[in-house]
Amino acid sequence: MKTRSFLFLTILMVLFGAYPVFDSSVANAAQTNTLSGEIPIGAVWSLTGDAAVYGPSQKNASELAAEQINKSGMLGAAKIKLITEDDRSTKEGAITAFDKLIKEYKVVAILGPTLSNSAKAADPIAQAAKVPVLAVSNTAGGIVEMGDFIFRDSLPEMLVQPNTIKQTKNKFGYKKVAILYGNDDVFTKGGYDAFKKALDDQGIKILATETFNKKDSDFSAQLTKIKGLKPDAIIVSALAEEAASIMSQARQLGIPASVPIIGGNGFNSPKLAQLAGPAAEGAITGAAWLITNDTPGNKAFVEAYHKKYGANPDQFAAQAYAGVYILADAIKTAGSSNPVAIRDAMAKIKNLDTVLGKFSFDSRREPVHAPVVQIIKNGQFVLFK
Amino acid sequence: MSDLPQQLINGLWQGAALALFAMGYTLVFGVLDIINLAQGATYMWGAFFAFLCVTKLNWPIWYAIPAAMVGAGFLAVLLDRLAFKPLRSLTSGGLVLWAGFIVFLLGAVGNLSQDIKWVTIVSGALIMLGGFVLDYRSGKPLRTREVPHLAPIISSIGATFILVSLAISQFGAQVSRFPPNLFPVKPYNVTAEAVISPIQVLVLGLSLGLMIILSFLINRTQMGRAIRAIAWSERTSRLLGINVDYVIAQTFFISGALAGAAGVLLGLAFNRLEPNMGGEVELAGLTVIIVGGMGSIGGAAIAAFLVGMIRVLSVAYIDSSFRDAFVFGLLILVLLLRPSGIFGRSKTVRA
Question: What's the whole-model pTM score?
Answer without folding.
Answer: 0.76
